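For the sake of clarity, the format in which proteins appear in this thesis is described at this point. Each number in the token line that follows is a code from a learned vocabulary of backbone shapes. One such record is shown here in full, so that the layout can be seen directly:
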Amino acid sequence: MRSYPTKPTKVFFVIVFILSTFLYACTEFSNSGNIELAYPSEHYQEALDGRLIVLLTENIDSEPRFQLRDDTKTAQGFGMDVEDWKPGDAIQFDTESFGYPIQNFDELPSGEYYLQVVFHKYEIFNRADGHLVKLPMDRGEGQQWNRAPGNLYSTPQKVKIQNGQISTTSISLESIIPPIEEPKDTKYIKHIKIKSELLSDFWGRDMYIGAHVLLPEGWETHPNVKYPLAIMHGHFPSDFGGFRTTPPDPDLEPTYSERFGVDGYNLIVQQEAYDFYKTWTGPDFPRVIAIKIQHPTPYYDDSYAVNSAAQGPYGDALTYELIPYIEEQFRGIGEGWSRFVYGGSTGGWESLAVQVKYPKEYGMCFAACPDPIDFRAYCLVNIYEDENAYYEEGTFRKTLVAGHRDYLGNVDASLRDMNYRELVLGSKGRSGQQWDIWEATYSPLDENGYPKRIWDRVTGEIDKEVAAYWKENYDLAYILKRDWAKYGKDWEHKIHLYCGDMDNYYLNNAVYLAEEILTSTSGPNYNGVVDYGDRAEHCWNGDHENGNHISRLRYHRMFIKKYVDNVGKVAPKGADLSSWRY
């Protein structure tokens, strides 16, 4: 598979490693379009591996490293792998490297731009499967290339591009992103981090997983009570967000949410967090332990909570190491029926996945706007029948497949756009972004130990052998159908799915297909819920009374009550359903 297309150009970058913070720009245009880059020696003295990302923007409202996105407001980016970059060595970054949204540097429109360079640092892993791979280790930020501590970056500066030539420029990568402070324990919120023996054995180094734990009101004064465990899955949480013991900050300057089109959304977020605190500690709310788990990997901010070839036994580590440890530390009941999972998007897929993969270890799942749970609708791609992911093709024309829409169906990004952006950020599945983590979770390994591509990232051609592997191991709807005779009784009353019928990423299509399977399975009826929100976008979670901007902030109070209302259907005879309901 080709990693990127090549096209002869006259322009290329030369990157020179020198011990200097020298920074200047001249207005002369170079025939070769050289950009010289340097960073101070105190940052690193050893050889570096990683990804160089060169960014160009028209405006400087925010740094270019924060402007690369899927829609038309995106910055321009180019990316190239760097290996064994020794101090003093000169390396070449040429603009034949793949770019997004414009693939070739010599096709950039003439004009003045702000230029910034980021170096995303990789580390070496000697895995137990015999593969040596180079990947970005999470450093407490949740796999964000533009925020990862230890990454180098330059100060944005203005450059001119004219007819494919760039004004000769020297840049110092003088800045390094600092470490992130660990969150502190409070009366209600505790923080857990443990070394996973399973993951450490797989990755060949110490690997840690953890959680932010929200204790119920009265936990200290009821020492003999054991509690159900509410497990929220989702993207990397820096703390137990959405819980605030004080009223909103009266001096907070209101900000506008571009995503939801709401003024003062930051004030709404603080008010909802304070309201949740009052609800959580009030007399009528169920007493459970709620946790948000942390399990970032070198591929993403979240492992997807299942075992996989490229990432190792995260499913077993969470289910058999982390969760029992938390239950022991904080008096959880510690039985399958007493653990329930919920989340949206990534967390929605994970919630259903762990319920499917570990049918007896979890008592109920509430999966909102889940990532594709049926790969016949992998967003708008049927990986089993379609030949190409990027195009609908006919005899005389082909049409780009949509990737993102609003609630009225207006498309602002194609599937190809979204994959090309990731290709700039990292080769071999190392972008730390959405399409790459799906491959890192679902795919077998290639000959070098990286995830096999479900499709060629440049052409969109689908690999049917990889698709077959995905089907047998991670197509959740197919697995439910295939294994219903074996596990149907264990899944009964436990599956609850919610999705907006105008999900921005077309995730509702897979839910439709899964619903057909659930309502037609032989044996025990699934006795769960599948619900849709009219014209609701991504993040809809079953709330028919409020918009997404509100309901997305109420997962705990919504789903904890739903679990308690239905726990009698999954709990064994004689289970304690009363002592924790004080």
Notes: The first strand starts at residue 12 and ends at 16. Residues 377-472 form one domain.
